[in-house]
């Protein structure tokens, strides 16, 4: 495994000197950053004559349709044989915006087998198995993988292959993962890069509308229900949480992506520094964590909830029922808060 640097970028560049078959792998529960990065890379490589396929383990939310070429996404769970074949035939495989096998869904079962050169571009702390990747460009301090993808293009000095589609995809990634440029990891460089991307003609109003002003009535009423009836606060230990059962989600005709962002609401209350959001799934409980200041939910999710992410935004799973998942969180949360 080699970290990609300015010193060895020519080694990576040489891989692309002739037309290559490339597969770009995005993570499970795909979000704006993994798909924005994936399709930004897709268009940039296609513009240079490479043959690219973008895959996710499962379905993305519809509001990400503002990402150019979204309709070309191949869903692994729906096209297993075709996907396997493409992954095994690929000369180069990019893994984008994730590195833990648990984030790869069923693709995780095959990822170590193909012969293609594997390149990781990510902004999560790295937990991947040794020797899985040939080249790694991983910067946990950067707010979005899409920003690192732009850096990667700059390292290549091939900015002429950036066009409006590439810029729109990358802008969407940065916008969503930086929570509209508000996270602590949003820097002057983030805003400079966003500015450069806009200069390619990105219609930022259309992206914003597609992502933030495109909800169903059910989604907004589900949010109202979650905040009014399901949000619990512990003011002594400064945390809050929301939980939703399958039945409650069904009552509001839940669609993929509908609960995106719910976890952020408890954190908007003065004095709350830790928030958790529990969703009941068929075989497990999905949990999202968000925090402020020095409360590190990445380590917390990794240690106690089979997950990971970033210091202030992480996720994980609990294998058991909803009540027990919440109980475990309530037992562990005070220690996490008191540690700081
Ligand atoms: P979300 O709460 O929005 O699902 O995820 C927040 C962050 O945590 C994202 O950066 C995501 O990549 C990471 N994350 C969410 N679920 C998991 C998980 O099950 N395992 C790991 N390693 N990371 C996760
Ligand atoms: Mn990301």
Description:
The mean pLDDT is 96. The strands form 2 sheets. This protein has a 7-stranded parallel sheet, with helices on both faces. Strands 8-9-10-11-13-12 form a 6-stranded mixed sheet. The radius of gyration is 20 Å and the shape is globular. The protein contains 11 helices and 13 strands. It is of the alpha/beta class and 340 residues long. Strand 8 and strand 9 (239-244) form a beta hairpin. It folds into 2 domains: 2-212, inorganic pyrophosphatase (n-terminal core); 218-338, Diaminopimelate Epimerase, Chain A, domain 1. The longest helix has 18 residues, at 322-339. Helices cover 36% and strands 19% of the residues. It binds guanosine-5'-monophosphate (5GP) and manganese (II) ion (MN).
Q: Outline the biggest β-sheet.
A: 7 strands, parallel
Count of all domains: 2
Bound molecules: guanosine-5'-monophosphate, manganese (II) ion
Derived structural class = alpha/beta
Give helix % range: 25-40%
Distance between the termini: 35 Å
Give the CA-based shape: globular
Rounded to the nearest angstrom, the radius of gyration is 20 Å
- The order of strands across the largest sheet is 1-7-6-5-2-3-4
Q: What labels describe this entry?
A:
binds guanosine-5'-monophosphate, Diaminopimelate Epimerase, Chain A, domain 1, inorganic pyrophosphatase (n-terminal core), single chain, 7-stranded parallel sheet, 6-stranded mixed sheet, globular, 340 residues, 19% strand, 11 helices, alpha/beta, binds manganese (II) ion
